[in-house]
Amino acid sequence: MHPLPLCRSILILSLAGPGLGAQETVVESWCEEMEPPLSLRQMLLEQDHLLEDGLQGFWETCHEKVLKSADLVAEAAAVELLLRDEVGSVLENQIAEERRNGDPDKRLPRMQAVLAWVNSPKPLPEIWGTPAKPVKRGRKRSFTVAGRKHSVKTQAWGGHEYALVPGGGSWQTASEWCRATGGYLVCIESREELEFIGRHLLNPEEEGYPRLDTIPPHRYNYWVGASDSRQEGTWQWGSGRKVEKNLFHINGIPPQPSNFNWGENHAGLVRFLHPDRGRSEVGMVSWHGPSRSQGICEWGRATLPAPWDVLADKALGKTLAPYWEQHGDSQLKIAEALAKVQNSGTVRKAAKEYGRLVSATRDDFQEDISKQRRALIRQGDDRGAALLEDLSQGLDLGAFCAEPAPLAPVPRESGRRLLGRAFGRSYYASTTALTWVDAEQACRAWGASLPFPRSRLELELLAHMLRRPGAPDATWLAVATHPNGARSGWRSPHGPWSTSAPNWLRALLSDAADGRGGLYAFGLVLPTSWSPSGGGRELQLPDQSTSDGPKFWARSTEIRTRFLYVVEGEPRP
Q1: Sheet harboring 425-429: ordered strands across?
Q2: Are β-strands 537-539 and 564-568 bridged in parallel, bridged antiparallel, or unpaired?
Q3: How far apart are the C-alpha atoms of 337 and 346, rounded to whole Å?
Q4: If pLDDT is split at 50, 70 and 90, which confidence band does 16 have?
Q5: What's the helix, strand, coil split of the chain in %, to 5?
Q6: What are the CA-CA distances from residue 347 to residues 62, 190, 442 (Å)?
Q7: What pTM, to 2 d.p., does this model score?
Q8: Which tens digit of pLDDT belongs to each residue from 232-276?
């Protein structure tokens, strides 16, 4: 049994509510585990029952529109196959021409590997940069990013341009700035390119460090586009091309890439003191992605990953370039058609009806909570009354109320496991361990979100999900501090924590902020029987003893872990 602190002080009042039938739901098993007072148990079961009925009514009303959305998605898939067939046809012609010419450059095996890639389910690589005319000298360039004007002085090498990203920030922030300007975080493909960047873009007055673990990264690190965030030890440039490890400062202390502390999944440039040559040189080192450093932006077409690097610009102009242009046009048309279906009168009317139901059930729930809270105040039970006030605040923030999912089907994680469904929300266990940023991005692609508990009761429900078979030992929550470069302030996809988080979570985050340090970003992890490695800090809920209820850890967002994710209001399987 895992008792719920909230329920210990609540006065038991009788409240009749509809049953959910003989089949046990997750809410029922959760109540069996925490043993709440009968009145609260019945309120929770009733809320779950009414929301599920309301969602079922919504999906039955929108059935024809759901079929229409599915047809549009199928149409997009058919267009995708045609576009890939066109790429394949062009490649087959190029391969035939190469054979007729005798394959003087021994390119046929790699071209055949490209054709095999096109005929496989793997996504085609994105072209980074434009095939502009080679640049011979640097120049002054101006950009407007996120409503702000920026001016940079570029340096030219090998037909490409390079410049420092204005201001300091995280790896993610620097990468987003570069992409917004038509460039990308620099992809260094040779020792010569590395040395050019070191001479012209790194501060020549910076001291070379004999020990890399003593370098202040916010002062001496320059972000580049290398990352191994998806798979530890597999370093790739943003273009997908493999990073040559000899570009790293292999002989550093610690050797690079090191993953030295709390997960180092991105790379930057530093000056180091060469142990044999006795002079300052430039090398790549692994750093924390959220550390504040300058980035180096590159403009010009990046080399594609093997075997695609066999294709010259002219061949790309006949294959990948038209594919991505037509792919973008097709996706835009499908998105507009899906939006039209989503905004149809039938769907809007069904959503309005469901919204009225949610509002009515929330009002009834709040009224029952208010009655119990007044009774506790009369009894002098201030703690119980405060906990009920937390539950009331959670309902106002959206606890135990799900919105219907979009009608169009979205890609799903391969092999995902449904742990349970409660209050119209489906809880899934991820199959892979990801960093906080990658997990949040993956959730968006799956039409899901990381859990965001708006009340202590929802927190207890998450703990119950983590104890179910097949669940991970911990989960990221949808809240982190400066993952995208801000110096301070917790954020979540639901908005700033100061307005979207309940009082107890704000107190928890304030406690984490007191000891987090300025260079690292942290996510929140909700462990059960698991203790995180790689650094972090255990946090305690207000009014919670050391053995009472779930535990939080503030830890680096660079650590990988499996996690729970939530899909709102999808149809029952």
Answers
A1: 417-422, 425-429, 564-568
A2: unpaired
A3: 15
A4: very low
A5: 40, 15, 40
A6: 6, 55, 27
A7: 0.85
A8: 888 999 888 999 888 887 777 777 887 765 578 888 888 877 666
CB-CB neighbours of 176 under 10 Å: 19
**140-303 has the same fold as 5-61+345-568:** yes
Q: What is the number of residues in the chain?
A: 573
**Which residues does 163 contact at the CB level (< 8 Å), separation at least 6?**
141, 152, 153, 154, 155, 201, 296, 297
Q: Tell me which long-range contacts 340-344 makes (C-beta under 8 A, separation of at least 24).
A: 341/65, 341/68, 341/69, 341/72, 341/407, 341/408, 342/65, 342/69, 342/406, 342/407, 342/408, 344/65
Q: Which fold has domain 140-303?
A: Mannose-Binding Protein A; Chain A (3.10.100)
Q: What is the structure's pLDDT at 561? A: 85
Beta-strand pair 294-299/222-227? parallel
Per residue in 66-90, pLDDT tens? 999 999 999 999 999 999 999 999 9
Q: Which amino acid, one-letter code, is at 111? A: M
- Reply yes or no: is the peptide bond before residue 254 cis, omega within 30 of 0: yes
Q: What is the dihedral of CA 199, 204, 206, 212, to 10 degrees?
A: 20
Measured distance CA(478)–CA(450) in Å, rounded: 5
Could you say which DSSP state residue 550 is in? -
Rounded to an integer, what is the distance from CA 398 to the centroid of its chain?
Answer: 22
Extents of the domains making up the chain: 5-61+345-568, 63-126+322-342, 140-303
Give residue 225's pLDDT: 94
Contacts with 117 (C-beta within 8 Å, 6 or more apart), sequence order: 124, 307, 308
Q: State the fold for domain 5-61+345-568.
A: Mannose-Binding Protein A; Chain A (3.10.100)
Q: What is the dihedral of CA 203, 204, 209, 213, to 10 degrees?
A: 10
